[in-house]
Write a structure and sequence with these properties.
Length: about 575
């Protein structure tokens, strides 16, 4: 609009209508190339044209579920050493195929990945698929979980012997011992059969032995552990001898540095998943490696002298982490319930603490008491009862180091006395009357009263005389509550006391002696060395290196015993076992 001054003015300040028209026009515009592509696509759709093959396959998916395996059907089939592990991308053959991990081909295997990129999932998938392909009679697993309990959901598989971690020192020691025993047992069996491999042994003897797979998750956690030398020693034996015996090792780690070269050189297969440090990948694969992709479960594997990408399967069709874990537990439960056959034996473990009532209800303990034995605790090696066997042992010595140990063992001791009260006479020598509240348990109590001391000496003399005349008196157990006080209070002659011990059992008298370890084990008192010379069975609550009661050698680095632990010795100290009795540690 032209105003009165001949100047141009806007008719309106709102220009949005023109802008909308402009945008609309811009949106409506199409390039010539786009128009041509759309026309070709329309014609192809109308004529139902067949698209040509692409020169490459689509990329591997980042989450792929393992193929479904019907374990009930497979458990009726012969053993197989192969199971699906992942989807392998093979560009040279224009294919993506399932990679079946075969123990006989891949052998001992090391899987790498940085934390959170799927190495534990790889173990879960592999073990679940092996378990679905084979029965527990055909394949068994020893699980060593040094990571964050990633193998825990598999613990109840019927194929699993047991699962241990680094914190379970006693259990780990037993697991390593079992692995060594399995190797030694098979070597001996193969030698007797005159064969060199599992296949030859089964063909020769017509007996089938299970494949044993030792699985370690997060081995690198053991690199700084005090038990590393023991772990590596056992693993090296598996790596050197296991393949021909049907015993294999599959383990994961986040880095190769720190692993002994002797171990790495015996790993037939090394499978790296994503590693943050590219130098680590080059150390593993050398110059033949492909570009890494930071996906969970994405790795690379050399197959037929060519490195290809592989996507590790998830162990079930679920895609979310929690759902995968829940489904894993459900599958394990179903498989465990479905197997009614023999399973691998679990490691024998004595609880760190257990109640006296639970101990006395153990069927083996009940049988001991019924046989006239006094069970005191359970051996840590095999959980068998240990204690005093009157028919085989002339007398029994219990040497404690602390008042807590004394209280714990006496609690057990008096409970066993009570159980034997119907079959044996019970005597107690309590010169200081420190156990007065327990005196009602015993048929006869001897204190420091002169009449009691005289009666005690006469009782011992009667049993010696009866033994000399080949007679048996009432079957009895005598408990001497304090050895040092006994000799001081009775003025008993050492030779006479030895005679009572040696002859008394023949007439039915068994003696249990209680003493502080620093007296009976280290004192130069005339009586203590004499007792040490004749004792054949004993319970010693002291370190092996700190007592003269033990002939076996021990390390000064060994830790102190817990308040409910002791060494049980036979054969005058040459044969021993560590044990644990009821009470707090």
């Amino acid at each position: 609009m032209i105003n009165d001054y001949g100047q141009t003015e806007l008719l309106t300040a709102d220009l949005s209508e023109d802008e909308v028209v402009q945008v609309t026009n811009q949106q409506a515009e199409k390039t010539q190339l786009e128009a041509i592509v759309d026309q070709i696509a329309a014609i192809a759709t109308e004529t139902k044209a067949v698209l040509p093959d692409k020169p490459w396959l689509p990329p591997l998916a980042t989450v792929i579920a393992t193929p479904q395996i019907d374990f009930k059907t497979n458990w009726q089939q012969p053993r197989t050493t192969a199971a699906p592990l992942g989807l392998l991308d093979v560009p040279s053959k224009q294919s993506q195929i399932t990679f079946n991990f075969d123990l006989e081909t891949q052998g001992n295997t090391l899987i790498y990945s940085s934390p959170g990129f799927g190495k534990t999932t790889a173990l879960q998938t592999l073990l679940m698929n092996f378990a679905k392909e084979n029965t527990p009679a055909q394949m068994q697993f020893n699980l060593l979980d040094f990571g964050t309990n990633g193998l825990l959901p598999l613990k109840d598989l019927p194929h699993v012997a047991d699962l241990v971690n680094l914190e379970q020192v006693e259990k780990l020691t037993k697991m390593l011992q079992r692995i060594r025993e399995q190797l030694d047992d098979r070597k001996q069996a193969f030698q007797q059969a005159g064969v060199a491999s599992l296949t030859q042994y089964e063909m020769s003897t017509k007996k089938q032995l299970p494949i044993i797979v030792n699985v370690i998750d997060s081995y690198d956690a053991a690199l700084e552990d005090q038990q590393r030398d023991a772990i590596d020693s056992t693993l090296m034996q598996v790596l050197r001898e296991g393949n021909s015996l049907g015993i294999y090792l599959v383990m994961t780690t986040s880095r190769s540095s720190g692993i002994r070269m002797a171990m790495l050189s015996n790993m037939a297969t090394q499978l790296p998943l994503f590693l943050i440090d590219n130098d680590e990948l080059r150390n593993i694969m050398g110059r033949e490696y492909i570009q890494q992709q930071a996906f969970n479960g994405r790795g690379q594997l050399a197959v037929d002298e060519q490195v290809n990408a592989i996507q590790i399967y998830t162990p079930n069709p679920e895609t979310e982490t929690l759902a995968i874990l829940q489904r894993l537990k459900e599958d394990v439960t179903v498989m465990a319930a479905s197997w009614q056959g023999e399973r691998p034996s679990v490691l024998p473990i004595v609880p760190s603490e257990f109640e006296l009532a639970a101990f006395n209800h153990d069927q083996r303990v009940v049988e001991w008491v019924a046989a006239g034995k006094l069970p005191f605790g359970l051996a840590l090696s095999d959980t068998a009862p240990l204690g005093f066997i009157p028919d085989q042992q002339a007398f029994f010595l219990i040497a404690h180091s602390t008042e807590e140990q004394l209280a714990n063992i006496q609690k057990v001791l008096f409970a066993q006395f009570k159980a034997l009260a119907k079959t044996k006479a019970l005597f107690i020598v309590d010169l200081e009357s420190e156990l007065k509240e327990q005196h009602d348990l015993f048929n006869q109590v001897f204190t420091n009263d002169l009449e009691d001391i005289a009666a005690l000496k006469q009782l011992m003399a009667d049993y010696v005389q009866a033994a000399t005349e080949n007679r048996r008196l009432e079957s009895a157990i005598m408990y001497i509550a304090d050895l040092e006080q006994f000799f001081k209070g009775t003025n008993f002659n050492l030779a006479d006391f030895k005679l009572t011990i040696q002859k008394g059992r023949q007439a039915g008298l068994s003696i249990i002696i209680q003493s502080p370890e620093n007296y009976v084990g280290r004192s130069f008192d005339p009586y203590a060395p004499g007792i040490r010379e004749i004792v054949s069975a004993r319970l010693v609550m002291a370190k092996l290196s700190e007592t003269n009661l033990i002939q076996a050698t021990g390390s000064t680095m060994a830790g102190q015993l817990a308040e409910n632990e002791a060494y049980y010795f036979e054969s005058k100290g040459r044969k021993y076992a560590k044990m644990r009795f009821a009470g707090q540690k």
